[in-house]
Structures are given as C-alpha cells and as structure tokens.
Here is the input.
Amino acid sequence: MKKYFLISIILFSAQIMTSCEDEDLDVVPEYLDGINTIDTEEKLQLFLNNAYLNTTNASAFGAEALFFGDLLSDGMFASSYLNTANFNYNALVNDFSFYGSMYGTILYCNIVINNTIVEENENVHRIKAEAKILRAFAYFELISTYSATPTSGQNQEYGVPLVLGDFDINLQQPRASVAEVYDQIISDLEAGVEGAYDAPEYKNYLSKTAARLLLSRVYLTRRASGDAELALNYATQVINNSPSAFAPVDPANYESYFIGMQNSQCENQPETIWELDLNFNNNSSTGIGSNLSLPSYYERTGTRSSFLFTQNFYNSFADTDVRKGMFTATGVPQTDDPTGLWTTKWKRASESGNFVRDIKILRFAEAQLNRIEALYLTGQTGTALTELNAFATSRGGNTYAGTDLLNDILTERYKEFFAEGYRFFDLKRYNLPIHRTSNCIECDLPANDLRFVFPIDDGVLQLNEPLTQYPGY
Here is the structure.
C-alpha cells in the first residue's frame, strides 16, 4: 500500500505561503503559525516531514544529487549535463543546485531540534532524534561535495557553513572548518542512535540503524586515528544487531527488488534502511516527473534518456552476476563508439503509476561493504578478502585474488551501487584519480584535482558575504 506521510505538510505549507487578502501582507499574520507557536507534537512532526520532503527535491536526492556521483565516474557517459560530465564547471556555469536544497532541509531540522515549547516526551524525543540524523545526512552530503576530503590535507579550513539556529533572514555565515563540520555530524548521529526508533513502520523514516550506518560511512571518510575501528564497530552492529526489519536482500529477489512492478516487491523491504517517499501528491512539490527524475535519464524509454554505462564496465560483471541482468543494449544510440548500455535500476512505471517509486538511499549492502573496508583499514586483510568474496559470490559475481585489496573493495562497491551515486565519492575519499577508458572527451581527473570539490554558485556567494569560494575557482 502506497504511503502519503508527506501530504499534510504540503497542505500546511500551502496555507502558510498563500496570500490573497490585505491582512496577508502582515509580516506575521495572526492566523498563521510562526516558529514560536509550534506547540504540538503534530506540528513538530509536520516540520520534520517537510525536511524529508526537501531532501526528496529533484535538485537534491530526488534526482540530481544522486546521479552526479555516477555522471562524474569512470563507468558511465552521457549526452546531457555535458559540462558536469566533462568536469567543466565553475561558480558561474554549473549544474549544481542542491546546496540550497540541503540547507532547506537543515532549516526545517533546526526548527524541530531547537523547539522548547512542545513538552518533551518519548515521541518528541524521537522526532528530534530523526531531525538530527537528517541534519547530519545533509551536512555530510554538503561537506563531501563542497570541501576537500579530510585525508587530502588540502584546504581544511574550507568546510561548509554550520547553521544550527533557527531561521534568520539576516544571517551571514562563513565556512566552518572541515573538522568542525565532521564533529557536528558525528554528534548529531550519536544523538540519533540514542533517540530514534529501532525500526519505524515505514522505511521513509530514519532509524537507529540508519544512524549507525551513516556513522560507519562518516568514519570511513574522515579516517582520523581510531576511526577505522569505529567504522568497523558501527557496520558490524548494523549487520549483527539490527531488528529483523533490516536484512540482506535474497539474491533470488535482487532484480525484482529494484524493478518489480508491485510496490510490495520494491518498497519497505528489509534490504532498505532508508528510502525517500515518492507519490503523486508530493511530486508536485519536489519537481519530480517526466522532465527531471532518475528514470527520465537512466531508463531506455525515459523522456530524457541519456545516461549509459560503458561496455568495459558491463563486461566486468560475470555472466552469472545477478546485477548484470540490470543492463540492456536495446535501443542504445548507435552513434556512440563503442555503444553503451542502459540500466533498468530506476524504473519509471509501477503499480501506482509513473514516477512514484520510492528512491533507495541507504541499503543493508552498504553496511556489509563498509565492514569489509573497515576490516581492510584495521589490517584484517585476510578476513576482509574472505568477506568480500562471500559478498561477490552472493551476487553470482567474480571473486578477487586480493593482490590490490582496496581496489577490489572499491570495484565491488561500484558493481553493487552503480546508478546509486557512490562511485565519484568513493574515489574522492581515497584521493584517487578518475580514469575513463572510452566514451569520453575529458577522460582523466587527476587525484586531488580542484574539480573533486564543487564550486559554490556565484549567486549563493552574493547572498552571504562572509562565505568564500573554494580556492582555485
């Protein structure tokens, strides 16, 4: 059964924003709720729902923020978003618009977290814990995109602005350091582990399990002293100690988990730790539809179909690998040399209609692969290789010799998460270059190149005077 947990906030927001009477010209009309009148649990939940909705925006994880991680990778090519695909972007010319969406999410989270009017109880504690996990997710995506990785040693004073208070139209906020932002992310996620639900009824809500998985991701990215051990601990907790609502996908159901026509095959599944709710009512607010959505670009019949994977990447899969079945050469442009392959991973149609299939953001497979990576980083290479090969075998894939174990781990991650936005950021966090072997104009991005950090749009800089552009742009 399709969920509509975001409908009420759309209607609520419409009430706040609509203006048609003279009295609506008041700065704060008396009949509308302001921040100081969020005085019930229901209103607090509405603002949290709006934070989720903002994350689902087409310029955020409804489409663009997710597919840029593949568009900039070494196994996919495209006939649109060519500036991005060719690493050709700057503060004036770029395709990146999710900076504002992520801070919009943070705005709503802050309103929830900072509320002191609604009396604290178990449910309010849960709402605020979810808001902290979501705020941490937004800040992690911002710092991963607009700053150098912590292990690069480059420009560590250029984090992103840390905004933790309520909305202030006059706020002028400079960049915090990379370390300060990571400290805040970890603090928020630890609070989420303490206060969120163990297993929400629907996977559209964040949970303790989601917070633990994100902590493992954060520690694998920061990699300060002791972080690998912490990443290993959190990933292992997700695998071994999560409620039964979270579990690995059955390999026999792997393909239907992504492309089954029935919602019961694809949504709210044990493999999913967090997914974004898409439905006819909120798509009008998020901007998701035939013009901008994941299936619009990835699917063969998409209205803007233009994202294809290379023959080299496709051929890296064993014929027995269940994931290889999620590609098709039907209808590919014959002008490409060599021709590419579409993926079927993002399906336009479902039993509920077009463009309403939930978007998977966090999966159980990441906990498994994060654990393997953490084992490698803590020197337990034999166990890491054994678990890596067990994971690959569960998909029917090739096993690895382990002579270049880090590359093997990153390769398996790409095979598992292709079209899910991981590859660019996996290479970035290890300060590795991007090397394309076909279907490219700009084929190489050297390690630690400036363009691993996205420019902040010039319009954003003009609105926030203390905010400085990343050096080099």
About this structure: DSSP finds 19 helices and ten strands in the chain. The longest strand covers residues 272-276. Confidence is low (pLDDT under 50) at residues 1-31. The beta strands are 76-78, 272-276, 307-309, 327-328, 342-343, 349-350, 353-354, 359-363, 434-435, 444-445.
